[in-house]
Amino acid sequence: MPKSTTTIAEELGEQMRKQGVAALTFPWPAFYEVVGRDRIKQAFQEQLTASLAAHSLLVVFGRATVVVCQDFNFSPAKY
User: Fold this and answer.
1) Residues 31, 21, 2, CA angle at the centre, nearest 5°?
2) What pTM does this model have?
3) Domain boundaries along the sequence of the chain
């Protein structure tokens, strides 16, 4: 049975804490492995986005990678 989005959000948050980083990047094949799925539908992306937001995390689904990061200004732009 696939992991729930809540479990995935908790695991990603824990991985970030253990690594001491504010963001994680995954190439798509690695992200499929992390979430334990062969396919990812729009509904799953929406549920995962909501579960991550509950842990103050953001997700960006790019063409080549998926980025998960903390929802705070961890790398301020200089302007």
Assistant:
1) 25
2) 0.91
3) 5-70
